[in-house]
Every structure is written in C-alpha cells, then in structure tokens.
Amino acid sequence: MSESLIERFRSNPVLKPDPHIHWRSRNVFNCGVVKDGDGLLKMLFRASHTEDQAFSDCGLAISLDGYDWYTLDKPVLRCGFNRYCSRGIEDPRIVKWIDDWYYVFATACSEVGGRIGIWKTRNFLDYMWIGIPFDWEDKDACIISEPINNCVYLLHRRAPDIWLSETEDFSLKGGWGNSFKLLSANAWTDPIGGKPSIKIGLAGQPIKTPGGWLVIVHVVFERGNRAVYTLSFIVLDLNNPRYIKYIHPSLILSPTEPYEMIGSVPMVCFSNAIIDATEDYLYIYWGCADTVICGGRIIKKKLSMCYE
User: Fold this and answer.
1) Rg of the chain's alpha carbons, rounded to an integer?
2) Number of compact structural domains in the chain
3) Angle at 97 between CA 134 and CA 33, to 5 degrees
4) Which one, out of 51, 83, 237, 307, has a CA that is 20 to 30 A from the CA of 27?
5) How far is it, in rounded angstroms, from Cα 167 to Cα 153?
6) How confident is the model at residue 2 (pLDDT cuts 50, 70, 90)?
7) What is the DSSP letter of 174?
8) Is the pTM of this model over 0.90?
9) Which run of H or E residues covers position 108?
10) What is the pLDDT of residues 252-291, one digit of tens each?
11) What is the C-alpha separation between 272 and 257, in angstroms, rounded?
12) How many other β-carbons are positioned within 10 Å of the β-carbon of residue 118?
C-alpha cells in the first residue's frame, strides 16, 4: 500500500487566507473537523496574520459535503482566551464525548510554551474551559471517543514521541497520572535517504473501525536543513489501546503538490482532522505549508487491517 491511499480533492485547497480579513490574512491551516448530529461538518481552523504564525485564533467553517465550506468572518476561539493562551491557540482536534458535548484539544500557547488546552462546546460558538492535563510542553492531543475499561485514554505528543495517558475522571478535569510512551519517534524510515523519522505526533482524532482504532500519525523527517512533514498510521486494539496491533510501514501522504511544498513553512502536510464520512470513505484534512487547508478521501476497502 502506497501514498495512493489518499485521493486528494480536486477542489484543493478547500480554504485559503483572506487578505481582506485581518485575523486570517496570512495563514489558514491545521484544522479539526467533526460531523454533528444533523450531518453538518464543522471545522475549527487555525489562522494567523503574523509572519511566524504566532498569536493564532481559531475560526469556524461549516460544510454540507466536505468540499465547499462557509466560513464565519470572526474567530470563535481567540488568542488571549486565558493566561494559557496569551500567544495563541493552535491545531485544534475535536471529538464528541459521551456527555454529548464536543471537546476541543488544542495547543494553548503562552510565554512559557505550549500546553494541551481542553475546551468543550455544544454550538461551536461558545466554549467552556476545562483545563490543562499536564503543566509541561505537550501537544498533538485527543482522547479516544469512548471510555474503555472505565478509563479515558488521551493520545498526545511529549516530544519527540507519542504517549498515552489515562484517567477515570470522565469530566476530563484531572487524574491523568498513568502515562507511558506508546510509540517512539524513529518508528518510520524515510523513503528518501533511508534515515529514521525524528519526530511523530497524533494527527486527527482516533477513528473506531471493526479492526481497531485507526490513528493517523504525522511523521517528520530531516532532509538537509528542512523538516519534512508526512503522514502514516497505526491501529490500536479496540479493547486495549495500550496495544498497537499494526504499524503501517510506508507513508500515505507526503508534500508533493505546489501548495504543500511552497508557503510559510515549506514541505508540510500536517493533519489534525479525519472523519468517518460515508459508507465507503473517510475524509481527511491537512494544513499545507502552514498556509492553506486541503482535503482528501481514504478508501475504506484499502484499509484491510481495519475493515475486513
């Protein structure tokens, strides 16, 4: 199985910066997407107006089909929401939890660095702050969408590896004491040059499939003086997510299109959104070169380890 697993949308990019709207005039990228109870797709996307993408806000876009998006003019999660977000809110991931609230896991940036920030919302316009699970540099986080063995499982990135943490507090406000490294950063080999990956992290929210929890992963390689962001995936056991059933040996997406290779941060495909869209397809979205947002389809029948 090769990078043909993802079929890029012909309409890419699906979202671009708007030079006439200040807060998203430079960069529109790294989005979380979820399907609500009415079948609408809701997207929280990161946007910035600064050269270094600092002081990011999160905007809301809505779609009926996943291809065409209507975007609100004003951000819904703003830089400065609280002291943890004084320098921005970055890279949201969204999951619907058992209490019927949508929970947002984003990087809350301040003068002391990035922390995992957790919010919840029902309407994607008003947000309640839950807190930070850890008071150290951490990001690329999301929970598995249902409790397993009376535990909540949180995937996150303590650089450069992916970690798994547990709590029995279904409010997600604390108790994250049991943490361990799930997967090491060097789990993949660069098809160009043969060097091991230097950093990995959770992409979109874990997707429940008959064969396990499908977890898309960003995989970073060092090529010359450039960090190149690509995608692959793993599958976790449905009843014991501490156990990795499968590690896909190759990449499923690399920056090859002009909009992925050229931009504010070249050679980047960074995903934090995947949804179970139809009977036959998963939809996946990714930020391209930290400048625009693109999307594609994953054909379920090609994921034999998940759907057969």
Assistant:
1) 18
2) 1
3) 90
4) 83
5) 7
6) low
7) S
8) yes
9) strand 102-110
10) 999 999 999 999 999 999 999 999 999 999 999 999 999 9
11) 19
12) 22
- Residue 16, Cα to own-chain centre: how many angstroms? 18
Q: Which domain holds residue 301?
A: 3-307
Nearest alpha-carbon partner for 158 in 110, 186, 116: 116
Helix (H) / strand (E) element for 206: namely: none
- Give per-residue pLDDT as tens, 98-144: 999 999 999 999 999 999 999 999 999 999 999 999 999 999 999 99
Please report the DSSP string for 117-155 in residue order: EEEEESSSSS-EEEE-S-SSS-EEEEE-SS-BTTBEEEE
Contact between residue 1 and residue 250 where contact means Cβ atoms under 8 Å apart: yes
Domain CATH number, residue 128: 2.115.10.20
Take residue 190 and report the two structure tokens written for it: 């660069």
End-to-end CA distance of the chain: 15
pLDDT over 90 (residue 7): yes
Which amino acid does the sequence have at 145?
S
Q: Which residues contact 220 (CB under 8 A, 6 or more apart)?
A: 197, 198, 199, 200, 227, 228, 229, 230
Looking at residue 116, the DSSP 8-state letter turns out to be E
